[in-house]
Amino acid sequence: MRDGQTQPHGLLKISAPTLLGQLLMGRIAAQFTMAYPEVRLSINLEDRQVDLVSEGYDLVIRVNPEPRSELVGRCFVKDQVHIVSTPELKKRYFRAGQKLQSLLPVIVRESQRSSGSWRILGPTVKEIPTQTVLQLPLLVMIRDAALTGLGAAKLPNLVVADDLKAGRLVSWGAASDQPSELWVLHTSRRLPSAKVKAFINFLETEFDKATSWSIKKA
């Protein structure tokens, strides 16, 4: 109770997805530290499902978390997954914007299996026959490979927003009708401390004004 009534201070241990950490957590951590210098951040990047209580985490950031009674929190951003490629690759594979000339070469994650076709959502739904030409472990690696023109890829807006804005990549349409949700969660067994409340509010505020990242607001 005393901690909840004081200014945010002390160690704040956070688990975040690797991708979010690579792209944004450095900036977020620095800005939060400037706003709350009495809080010491400890951020671990990991994609596994950590146990907040037994592993001593104050907060965890997860993508599309399953509902669990022991965790509570907020969705702080929604992000659409696009099918993207270089403009040149798209031109090669479309005739008058209607028909594909051949199989679309695609770059996928190592954990994914190609279904033989990709569904593109837009004004109309298109089924595009595909051929996997490269498998890579990380989304940032897939983005870099797509920028070479080797193949198309399914990537979240978070990863490709700058490339879409600059015209290095173009979107063929959405890969899903449901955007991915990023949640910040804490255990429901404890009352959130001042430092936990401060970070949750800070994260939500930063993404609300993050128009330069072109991320859809929750």
Describe this structure in words.
This protein is an alpha/beta fold. It has two domains: about 110 residues, D-Maltodextrin-Binding Protein, domain 2, CATH 3.40.190.10; about 90 residues, 3-Layer(aba) Sandwich (D-Maltodextrin-Binding Protein, domain 2). The protein has six helices and 13 strands. Strands 9-10-8-11-5-12 form a six-stranded mixed β-sheet. The chain has a five-stranded mixed β-sheet with strand order 2-1-3-13-4, covered by helices on one side. The two termini are about 30 Å apart. The C terminus is likely disordered.
Question: Considering the protein shown, what is the CATH homologous superfamily of the largest domain?
Answer: Periplasmic binding protein-like II
**CA distance, first residue to last residue:** 31 Å
Report the principal-axis shape. elongated
Largest β-sheet summary: 6 strands, mixed
Strand content: 25-35%
**Spans of at least 5 consecutive residues with low confidence:** 211-218
**H and E order:** HEHEEEEHEEEEEHEHEEH
Task: Tag the structure with descriptive keywords.
about 220 residues; alpha/beta; D-Maltodextrin-Binding Protein, domain 2; 2 domains; 5-stranded mixed β-sheet; 13 strands; disordered C terminus
